[in-house]
Amino acid sequence: MNALLIALLLLPLLGAAATLAPAGLFGPDPEVQDRRALRFNAVVTALVLALAVALAAGFDHAHPSRMQGVTDVRWIPALNIRFHLGVDGVSLPLVVLTALLTFLCALYSTKRLPNGAGTPSARSFTGLFLLLEVGMLATFLVLDLILFFLAFEIVLIPMYFLIARWGSGARTASAYRFILYTLLGSAVMLLGFLLVGLNAGTFDMTALAAAHGQGLTHSTQVLAALAIGLGLAVKAPAWPLHSWLPDAHTSAPTVGSVLLAGVLLKMGTYGLVRVLLPIVPDGTATFAPYLGALAAVGIVYGSLACLALARPGRKGDLKRLIAYSSVGHMGFVLLGIASLTPVGLNGALFANIAHGLITGLLFFIVGSLKDRYGTADLDTLSGETGAALYGRAPRLGALLAFAAVASLGLPGLAGFWGELLAMFGSFHPAAGLSRPAFLTYLVLAGLGTLLTAAYLLIVVRRVCMGDPAQRAAAEPAELRPYEAVSWTPLAALTLVAGLWPALLLSLSDPVVKHLLDVG
Q1: What is the C-alpha separation between 509 and 343, in angstroms, rounded?
Q2: Which of 1, 85, 394, 501 is the most core-located residue (most Cβ within 10 A)?
Q3: Is-contact 478 395, C-beta < 8 A?
């Protein structure tokens, strides 16, 4: 299995390097180059997905808390930094999700890559896209703090260019805001890593987790938890460090939005679980009530922002609305983590995967609507001359309605279990945490679920309903074959995860108990 982990990183890295080869590799004609580069991107990401599926098939499901496929060799002996890879029940679903979303995005891009004056070549897109995949996969596989930081940073430059060069609207400003927020957060996080590593004498994440804070004083843990937590909270994103997200999503191309919501946000919450909880447990417990408060405010704030955007006459952009919904949904993930209980943490990890599937599907659908109408403005997509998808494009409308009810947490779909378990964790937080405070957070989270249902149902009513006999500004095309191929796996997995939650919970529960150092 260790060969699989190395191949998962090496294959897209070699693919990205191949795009730097002379133009003859993809043909002399620029149009042929672009077409072949996009197909090359789809083939490489398909092979990576096959490796991820093979990794999942070969994983020892009887011992998910044990690191498997481990590679551990000296890298920089002077700093005691090692090239250390491994996968367990927490990281495995994220690796598979990342490989799946990147393949579906690459497949979608073969038909829908933004182009026009000033847009770089598809070969440039392919190189950046594959480099982005390397960074995302490495974040979930590395087991050294310095390697984790490097993987965390690798994704920033490709995503910056995807937004700035293939995006729309105020794409340059949005890309700048994205890179500045995340770089500043990462710089603070690195200080926390150095504080831990230099005091503990190692940067090895498994050794530090096994020590569970031993050898680190309380003040060191508090300072490290503050620095690392701030850096990870920016990427999560936690309110009020979220303001880069709506602009980035609004300006990003469809595949950029899918990967930003489906994978990049998970890197922040994964870091909280993998690094913060087991390595500096005392510091984490100190800040857990504050994290819970920010999570609860974020849930309500995100929902209220979405309600405001969904109102008629507000010119609410659907991509922006879904971005604000992510602030609310990731609030449930943060609330589950803040409870410091196995139930809450399992809910957070489940909600992580569910959000990647559901929000990825939503951004795909909204991106296709923007392609059809030239806008994602909700007022344009509703009304007498609006989309009326149920009558004009029923398959597209049905998929949008399915993704919306999954996002609002309908029982039987993936969005339900994670949020429910996160709230259960808040109902009975870990010993030492204020139960009245967490009960308050629970009430706010419950209010957030009601507000979420309200704005999503408003969106479905305004976009999907209407009189198809009315003359429309543009007739939407029905679901296209390449769209069906790209989106069906996400819809199917949303249903499977909702009906069979044990598929994910059986992987995460033993790891969670090990990370929390409970029975």
Answers
A1: 8
A2: 85
A3: yes
Beta bridge partner(s), residue 204 = 144
Distance CA 82, CA 501 (A): 36
Burial of residue 201 (CB within 10 Å: 0-12, 13-18, 19+) is: exposed
Q: How far is CA 85 from the centre of its chain?
A: 21
Exposure on the CB side of residue 381, measured as CA atoms within 13 A:
33
Name the token pair of 158: 């490709």
The first and second tokens of residue 512, run together, are 């969670």
CA atoms within 13 A on the CB side of 184: 8
User: Distance of CA 288 to CAs 222, 346, 349, 370, Å?
Assistant: 11, 16, 17, 40
Q: Which residues pair with 142 in a beta bridge?
A: 85
Q: Provide the residue type at 481 as one letter.
A: P
Task: Name the least confident of 19-33, 101-115, 465-479.
Answer: 465-479
Res 384 pLDDT > 70: no
pLDDT at 499 over 80: yes
> Is 237 exposed, middle or buried, given 0-12, 13-18 or 19+ CB atoms closer than 10 A?
buried
Q: CA 170, 260, 134 angle in degrees (round to 5)?
A: 120
Residue 468 predicted with pLDDT over 80:
no
Share of the chain above pLDDT 70, in %: 93
Distance between CA atoms of residues 428 and 426, nearest Å: 5
Query: Residue 404 corresponds to which tokens in the numbers above?
Result: 């919306």
Question: How high is the pLDDT of residue 23?
Answer: 59
Residue 474 has pLDDT above 60, yes or no: no
- pTM across the whole model: 0.92
Among candidate residues 440, 397, 142, the one with its CA nearest the CA of residue 274 = 142
**Over the chain, what is the mean pLDDT?**
86
**pLDDT digit string, tens, across residues 20-62:** 776 557 766 667 777 888 888 999 999 999 999 999 998 888 8
Category of 71 on φ-ψ map: left (φ > 0), alpha (ψ -120 to 50) or beta: beta
Q: How far apart (Å, rounded) are the C-alpha atoms in residues 275 and 207?
A: 11
Give, in degrees to the nearest 5, the angle at Cα 276 between 348 and 273. Answer: 25
Q: What is the CA radius of gyration of the chain?
A: 22
Length of the chain: 519
Phi-psi region of 409 (alpha: psi -120 to 50; beta: other; left: phi over 0): left
